[in-house]
Amino acid sequence: MIDTHCHLTHPRFEADLDLVLGRAREVGLEACVSIGTGVEDAGRVLELTRRHAGFVFGTAGLDPFSAHATGGGFDEDLARLSSLLEAGGFAAVGEIGLDYHYDLDPRPLQARRFARQLELAARLDLPVVVHVRDAHEDMAAILSAHAGCRGVIHSFTAGPAEAERYLALGWCLAFNGVATFPGAEAVREAARICPVDRLLIETDAPYLAPVPLRGRRSEPAHVIHTLERLAGTLGQDRTELAAATSANARRLFRL
After folding, report:
1. Is 177 left (phi over 0), alpha (psi -120 to 50) or beta?
2. Which domain holds residue 128?
3. Residue 254 — φ and ψ, nearest 5°?
């Protein structure tokens, strides 16, 4: 298995990261993709990938929260991000996107900042990890206007209608612990219509611990619970689905 989205530089992993990675290996993970949110965090992610080469891979992007935190310094941080990505060592640009749930910045500003990073990803020929919350209509429109980009809609928590739009645009969908929640039948319906060669699994650790671990800190090893639930939902053998999602991750991120 490959956990395609986790935040291993989060302070909640500071005290026991080696143990966390050990447990991930024990349950059968072959790799984790640690997400860099903001330039400073991206630097920490890059250091982590060097310490755990071949097992931890990294991304870098200015998500809606880190972009907001730049204040009036977004252009400067984007330039620093570009330099980091151009130097190599990252598997993707992200997470980047739109967040209308918190609306920290005006929506047109979010869209412009997102589009500029999509252009960067296209220029560097890197896949994109997309963050989208309560913004599917605008997200689909922006992705449609940037047809040269490819990547994954991370933490997919919408239904089949939204899934169809992203799939039609050529994007992958990543499912995490939300797919195990009792009230998330629409998410599982979306998984049912997702071609197996476009389906990824993730944890978003330390967030969104799956059933039966809700309320606890999530970690990459917990991706096995999402895999098992999806296998049941899709009527597939767990081992075969693990192999398929891992192949998808290797292909998308060029691991």
Report:
1. alpha
2. 2-253
3. 55, 50
